């Protein structure tokens, strides 16, 4: 239902743009977000955006470097990642839920997509 793409290998300081697409029109009324999981670490929240796009949340570790956006006409969500650091290396998952706060909390999320690998080399 959710398809993430755009991951890859990039050098530190570089940029990547992740996308999440779905054919489920109802998700246009849901908040959407990104979470990530690095090897040996717990999954963590990255960013989320309200269904209207008027509200967005970011983890402190990515504020000022990552920008989340969405296009409800296409039911897509993007994550522009700039100034990437090796510690950003992880599998990134897109997810959607009715509540922005649920995405921020990181558990109890209704729908998940398959992850996309982001690797940042030093």
Overview of the structural elements:
5% of the residues lie in helices and 47% in strands. With 122 residues, the chain is mainly beta. Strands 2, 4, 5, 6, 9, 10 and 11 form a seven-stranded mixed β-sheet that branches. Strands 1-3-8-7 form a four-stranded antiparallel β-sheet, with no helix packed on it. It is globular, with a radius of gyration of 13 Å.
Summarize it.
The chain is mostly beta strands and 122 residues long.
Strand content: over 45%
Query: How would a crystallographer describe the biggest sheet?
Result: 7 strands, mixed
Query: Which geometry do the CA atoms define?
Result: globular
Order of helices and strands: EEEEEEEEEHEE
Distance between the termini: 34 Å
Query: Mind telling me the C-alpha Rg?
Result: 13 Å
**Broad structural category:** mainly beta
Oligomer: single chain
Q: What fraction, in percent, of the residue positions are helical?
A: under 10%
User: Could you tell me the mean pLDDT?
Assistant: 95
Unreliable runs: none
How many helices? The count is: 1
Count every beta strand, where a strand is a DSSP E run of 2 or more residues: 11
Task: Please tag this protein with its features.
122 residues; mainly beta; 4-stranded antiparallel sheet; 47% strand
Ordered list of secondary-structure elements with their pairings:
Layout: E1 3-5, E2 8-11, E3 16-21, E4 31-37, E5 44-49, E6 56-58, E7 66-71, E8 76-81, E9 90-97, H1 100-105, E10 111-112, E11 116-121
């Amino acid at each position: 239902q959710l398809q993430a793409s755009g991951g890859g290998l990039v050098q530190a300081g570089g940029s990547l743009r992740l996308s999440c697409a779905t054919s489920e029109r109802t998700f246009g009324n849901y908040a959407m977000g990104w979470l990530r999981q690095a090897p040996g670490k717990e999954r963590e929240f990255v960013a989320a955006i309200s269904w209207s796009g008027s509200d967005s949340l970011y983890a402190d570790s990515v504020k000022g470097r990552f920008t989340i956006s969405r296009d409800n006409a296409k039911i897509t969500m993007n994550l522009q990642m700039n100034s990437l650091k090796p510690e950003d290396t992880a599998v990134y998952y897109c997810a959607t839920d009715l509540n922005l706060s649920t995405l921020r909390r990181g558990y109890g999320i209704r729908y998940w997509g398959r992850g996309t690998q982001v690797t940042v080399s030093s």
